[in-house]
Design goal:
Layout: E1 4-9, H1 15-23, E2 26-32, H2 35-44, E3 49-52, H3 60-67, E4 74-79, H4 102-113, E5 117-122, H5 133-143, E6 147-154, E7 165-172, H6 194-198, E8 209-210, E9 216-217, H7 223-230, H8 295-301, H9 314-323, H10 327-342
Parallel strand pairs: 1-2, 1-4, 2-3, 4-5
Antiparallel strand pairs: 5-7, 6-7, 8-9
Length: about 350
Amino acid sequence: MSDWGVVDFFCGCGGTSAGLEKAGMDILAGIDIDQSALDTYKINFPKAEAIHESVTTLSPETLNKKIKTQKKKHLVFAACAPCQPFSTQNRLKNKEDERVSLLGELCKFVKHCSPDYIVLENVPGMQKAEKGPFTLFLEFLKAEEYSFDFGIKNAVDYGVPQSRKRLVLIAAKKGSIALPEETHGKGKLPYKTVKEAISKYPSLKAGSKCNRTHNHQCAKFADITMKRIKHTPEGGDRRNWPDHLILDCHRKHTGHNDVYGRLWWDKPSVTLTTKCVSISNGRFGHPEQDRALSVREAAALQTFDDDFIFVGTLRSTAQQVGNAVPVDFAKALGKQIIKHSKGL
C-alpha cells in the first residue's frame, strides 16, 4: 500500500487508473455510467470501488463514505469527461448536450474533498470553447488556490506507439507544478512503433479469435472488403485499389484517405477511435495480415499490459479501448505528480 490514493472520475475501462497505478499509486475508486466499461474496470482493479452512478447524482459525502479518502496522505482526482461534444469527429455538435457540463460536476467533489492533485485529459477542442467547461474549470481552480499547468500533448512523445494529441492538465494544492517533459522524439528516445507493440501476437484470420491470448479477436469481413484489403499494401489505402473496387462515394472525394488503410510497421499508429477494429472507419488494417486490428492489438497500441482483460462484445471492448487514456501517458503524469510531491 502506498501513501497515494486515486479517484478516477469517468474512468471507463481504466486506462488512467492503470497508468497511475504503474506510477506507484493505489486506486481507490472508479466512477462511470457505462456498465460494460465498469465490468472491465472491476476485473482489473478488484481492490477499488467500482461506482456505477452519474457524477450528476453522486454526492461528495457518499463518495467519501465509500472510499474514506482522508486515510491517504496524498489524494489524486483524475478525470476524462466524455469528449465527443468537442471532438473533431463530431459533426453534430449540440450546445444542449448534457456531456458538455460534466466537467463542471467535478467541482463539487474538489470543493468537498480538497484533493492534493488533479489530472485531466481530453480532446484539444475542449479548450477552444469560449466560456466553456474547461475555461470555467480553470477559473474554479484559481478560486480554490490550486496551481496548474496545461497544454496540448501527444502521447507518442511519452512512449506510446500511437499519435494521440490531447489536452492535459495537472493541478496541485501546494507549490507550482508543470507538465512532464517529453521523453521520445527528436533528440530523445526513438518513437515506439506498431511493430514493437503488436508483432508478437499470433496470426489471425478475419473474423477469428485466439483463445491463448485475451481479447485477440478481430472483425469479420465481407468478400468485397477482403478483396480490397488484399490490394492494400503496408501503409497503403484505397488509393492502391484497382478501379473496379473503388466505392462510388470515393470517386470524386480525395480526403479521408485513412479509411480502409493499413498501418505501417515502422511508424507509430494513427489515433485509435472507438471503431478501431473496423477498417472502414480508419487506418486500422493490420500492416501485413488481411484483417483489421484485434482488440488486443489495439489495447497494446494504447499500452495496456497483456494481462489487462476487457469484458464485453467485440464492439464494446473496441469502444472501451478507443475511449481510454493511454496507460503509459497516464503513468508519465503520475510520476510527475510524485516527483512534485517530493520537492515540496
